[in-house]
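Quick question, first post here. What does this chain look like in 3D?
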Amino acid sequence: MLRALAVDDERPSLEELLYLLGADPRIGSVEGAGDATEALRRINRALESGPHGPEAIDVVFLDIQMPGLDGLDLARLLTGFARPPLVVFVTAHEDFAVQAFDLEAVDYVLKPVRTERLAEAVRRVVEQRGTAGAAPRIPVHEPDPDHIPVELGGVTRFVAVDDITHVEARGDYARLHTDRGSHLVRIPLSTLEERWRARGFVRIHRRHLVALRHIGELRLDAGTVSVLVGTEELQVSRRHARELRDLLLRRR
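> Answer (accepted):
Ran it through. Tokens below.
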């Protein structure tokens, strides 16, 4: 059973998170803290009591934007601890996901928090800790090959793969670009490259995967190769330039 600490400076959000976590059978106990400074004091006490002590904390569910010490600051401090608790960020802002990944967060949950999304975050914590007696994983249906789920404002939406013009690597995340905007997903670029190769996506750079159908121009300038995707010009690395040119010629 997990011992959790929820941290949020907004009382209604904190109470809702405490309620949802308390209702999860994998959470043995959960406490709340109204700011990161209070949370840090509790974590320090927990570490002093030892991993099996009465105040031990396995995981912190952490808001990001808080006055004074914010959630990212607290997570950075925890990376210097010998036995820090795991961290799950719970925030209304998707812009900090890459920083959260760099700080080795287990998950990044967007507000308003949905019960099933929070349950998935708890599952990831249980999986990472290897907790004995964890609840069995619920079988997941095979993903729809024509769409990819993304989270926007706490709501899961499905983006058509054919609408994706290119993908940008962001560590263990990837940003999907379409004509109507972009979406951050927790999937490495290498995974999407393998999954979508048969759908006409090709690697042009260590940071970019592009849909051939959305390439408008191939540009050569003083030995530099680039492609025009919509209104955006993307650089093509030398190692990928020949393969890309051959694929575009065969497409004609």
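The radius of gyration is 21 Å.
The longest helix spans residues 115-129.
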